[in-house]
Design a protein that fits this description.
The chain contains six helices and two strands. It is mainly α.
């Protein structure tokens, strides 16, 4: 009898501990939803890193300000889809090239930019 109670207690403790560990395995979280688009916590963190890299100040709580800015962007994109605004690929490429060059200038070198993003130069424009 003593052993069965101990075994039951051990199994209960083990199952409870495994449930607690499983709850911490979150891949990403949805912070806001704008139209059909979700704003993810990872997007907020990436935007926060960009702001810090550019030495810009954020007034107030960054976790309120940044989702709001991302929501505004997504609202404009959603409205652009409704209005059927088309952008030429050459304009997009030119803007991406400008942004990458600005980031290289602010970090000091291509290697430091790659280190900061944890990606090669080929992957950085995809994030922008």
């Amino acid at each position: 009898m003593k052993y069965s109670v101990k075994i039951l207690f051990f199994l209960f403790a083990l199952s409870t501990a495994s449930c607690l560990v499983a709850q911490n395995n979150v891949i990403d979280e949805i912070v806001w939803v704008v139209g059909d688009e979700a704003i993810l916590k990872s997007e907020v963190e990436e935007y926060r890193k960009e702001i810090l890299m550019q030495n810009q100040r954020i007034e107030g709580d960054p976790y309120c300000f940044i989702p709001e800015q991302l929501a505004i962007r997504k609202l404009f994109l959603d409205q652009a889809k409704l209005d059927s605004i088309e952008v030429q690929e050459s304009n997009v490429n030119r803007t991406l090239e400008y942004l990458v060059n600005e980031y290289i200038a602010s970090t000091g070198s291509v290697e430091r930019l790659e280190e900061y993003y944890g990606k090669s130069m080929a992957g950085i424009p995809e994030d922008l």
